[in-house]
Write a structure and sequence with these properties.
Elements: H1 17-68, E1 72-77, E2 90-96, E3 108-116, E4 136-144, H2 150-155, E5 161-166, E6 172-176, E7 182-183, E8 187-196, E9 199-200, E10 205-209, E11 216-217
Antiparallel strand pairs: 1-2, 1-5, 2-3, 4-8, 5-6, 6-7, 8-9, 8-10, 10-11
């Protein structure tokens, strides 16, 4: 018939089954190679987000104290129970009914604002630092004297229950465990770490709460 292409040149469009299988094998191999790197990136992003949340709540407490004229307290805990986010660390914001930090602590009221490390971990159940074969993000707090070199803060023993309180007159008070409030005389160093099976992964993020100063990344 006129206009009909030669039979030898006719070829069906699309891929053969063999070609599709080869393509799937290549895609699968590429996905397996990329997956570990993608997991590291996502975990690192969660770790950075956790550090940002710690920085924001610390700055918020100090700023709100100056703005509202009432004392604002941060309470950090990382005991192996619910209030300590099962060892991962949690910071709660607590507001005083007056402008003093050293008053009876029954005068403080907790507000719905916190930095909870449990929220930055991916798990169907509450994560803990003892979890196996899974990256775990957690928060530590250490103290260091203002005259000491920065490395001393890293070498000091982590504290498990810490309170930092900001007064509207600019004074800052602190207390560890059940010790009553006193003027802050040591820097506070928060460190957001990431581990898998007890081995640290990535780069830790550090937030410094200096004596009499605003929170900042270190």
């Amino acid at each position: 018939m006129p206009g009909r292409p030669p039979r030898g040149r006719r070829r069906s469009a699309g891929f053969t089954i063999i070609e599709l299988l080869i393509a799937l094998v290549i895609i699968g191999a590429m996905a397996m190679a990329v997956a570990p790197s993608l997991s590291e990136v996502l975990s690192d992003n969660r770790q950075h987000g956790a550090a940002m949340e710690v920085l924001k709540i610390a700055r918020h407490a100090r700023a709100q104290s100056l703005l509202t004229g009432t004392a604002h307290m941060l309470r950090f805990r990382n005991q192996n129970d619910a209030v300590g986010s099962f060892g991962l660390g949690r910071i709660d914001l607590i507001v005083s009914m007056n402008n003093k930090c050293a008053e009876n602590q029954t005068r403080f009221v907790q507000v719905p604002r916190w930095a909870d490390m449990g929220e930055f971990n991916v798990s169907s159940a509450m994560p803990t630092r003892a979890d196996v074969n899974r990256q775990v993000i957690f928060l530590e707090a250490r103290l260091a004297n203002p005259t000491a070199v920065a490395a001393v803060a890293e070498a000091s023993v982590p504290v498990t229950d810490l309170r930092i309180c900001y007064q509207p007159n600019g004074e800052t008070f602190s207390g560890v465990g059940g010790v009553p409030f006193g003027p802050q005389v040591q820097h506070v160093l928060f460190t957001v770490r990431r581990e898998i099976n007890g081995s640290e992964r990535g780069v830790s993020r550090q937030i410094l709460l200096p004596v009499g100063g605003n929170a900042r990344f270190r």
